[in-house]
Amino acid sequence: NSINISLSDANLFDEIKNELKKQDFKENEISLLLNQVDDLEQSMGKESFSTKYTRFIQSLGEHVAVISPFLPALSQGLIG
Question: Out of the domains of life, which is the source (predicted)?
Fold first, then answer.
């Protein structure tokens, strides 16, 4: 039972934000992460995407598994 999500999915970033909101993050952590998801969305197709992607993954740290279903779609933005 796998989830196939594409970077081109209009709801990708909303789905990531919804998943993050379900987790037990501190207020300042969730605020930072949600802002970073917005930054990712705004930088899609631009050179800055890879920097913002790296920053987002680093901010997640040990919580990266929370967004693991979305990583293949996000990593599509690193190609090209």
Answer: Bacteria
